[in-house]
Amino acid sequence: MPVLVASDLDRTLIYSANALALTGPDARAPRLLCVEVYESRPLSYMTETAARLLAELGDATVFVPTTTRTREQYRRISLPGPAPAYAICANGGHLLVDGETDHDWHARVTTRLAAECAPLSEVRAHLERTADPAWTRKHRVAEDLFAYLVVERELLPEEWVKELAVWAENRGWTVSLQGRKIYAVPGPLTKSAAMREVARRTGAGLALAAGDSLLDADLLLAADRGWRPGHGELADADWTAPGITALPGRGVTAGEQILREFLEAARSAG
What we know:
The protein contains nine helices and 15 strands. It has helices at about 50-60, 70-75, 105-115, 120-130, 160-170, 190-200, 215-220, 235, 250-270; strands at about 5, 15, 30-40, 40-45, 60-65, 85-90, 95, 100, 135-140, 145-150, 175-180, 180-185, 205-210, 225-230, 245. A five-stranded parallel beta sheet has the order 5-1-13-14-15, with helices on both faces. Helix 1 (about 50-60) runs parallel beside helix 9 (about 250-270). It is globular.
């Protein structure tokens, strides 16, 4: 039976320039490979070593990129290795099969959201009413599924984030703060549900996962084994659970550590 590897991308396997966390001497910095270009500018990177490991992983497992990005944002990324047969976008709202949207899956997701949580329009209105323009740079809606703000992090009141989280929870939504973005996501919109669907379709006998944010927690818990890097929301909260390994690496080198763990676990299973 195949091994399924479902991994978050941003700040788990790929990193913006601001998230690289290169702390050693310049002369010893790892060589980087650009894996995303946006508006003709390089945007995301992984180390060349991580790129090689990911290509090996793609040959040995069912590798499933698993992201909160929209489909359009995901398609900007060019990952090393074979093209993934499956990809999870919009935090589980869209399942791509050979690069194409599975519309039946999306319909199942939207039906569940309508039945179990407050509508997106209510959440958008609350964000527009309460987010101070002094620290809010952009209001965005992703795939008509969830909302997020781009903020000036140093000006963002911590108390406002806590109040938003409580307000959202009472309406069946989850709040996650990742870098300069605050996400408001329906509780039933999960990466784990989409991962289980891929596992069912592929007959995977072992599921491995990695991620750094609160929105990855359900994915890690649903896998047989999971890893998180030494940065991000989960690390800041010292979050752990049975079967979860907290790695010490921070920044782009953590991506290498995660991929090595994936490969070792997959080979051991074989």
